[in-house]
Amino acid sequence: MASIKFKHYANLATALTASALLSACVTATGPQFSGVASPEPGKGDVYLYRSAAMAASLDSFAVTLDEKKIGSLANGSFLHLRIEPGQHKLTVKPSGLSKTSEVEMEIKSAETMFYKYEFPTGPLMNLFFAGSSIVQKDRTLAIEEMKELRSSK
């Protein structure tokens, strides 16, 4: 009888721990992606996104544009940036001693570009985010991948 009670409490403790961990995930609370905004005349648009994953779900990554912090990228989120045309550097930095990923972009007026922050998950996951990068995506694929994401801004 004691064995059954122990198993019951052990299962309850496991469920509560899992629930606490999942609720602690850093997720975006902004509106869900609803489509690509029309660009403003004289500006360019950039969408930067991060797919939802259990790996690093507790971490929100710092995002900078031209060395200025512009926001953060939570698990399963996107940022919509409206910026001046020209050459820009976009960076994503997980916390701690993790690798900073960056990409140089040439933004044109009334143009919309899509970038995804990618990093190894599963058995290849590592604390330093070695192998992470910011990858340009085509419009159709990016829109499909962003359908379930929420705004981080």
Topology:
Elements: H1 2-23, E1 44-50, E2 61-65, E3 68-73, E4 77-83, E5 86-93, E6 101-107, E7 112-118, E8 133-137, H2 139-146, E9 150-151
Parallel strand pairs: 1-7, 4-9
Antiparallel strand pairs: 1-4, 2-3, 2-5, 5-6, 7-8
Tell me what you see in this structure.
This protein has 153 residues and is α+β, with helices and mostly antiparallel strands. The protein has one domain (28-151): Immunoglobulin-like. Helices cover 20% and strands 35% of the residues. The chain contains two helices and nine strands. It has helices at 2-23, 139-146, and strands at 44-50, 61-65, 68-73, 77-83, 86-93, 101-107, 112-118, 133-137, 150-151. The strands form two sheets. A five-stranded mixed β-sheet has the order 8-7-1-4-9. Strands 3-2-5-6 form a four-stranded antiparallel β-sheet, with no helix packed on it. Strand 5 (86-93) and strand 6 form a beta hairpin. Mean pLDDT is 85; it is low at 8-24.
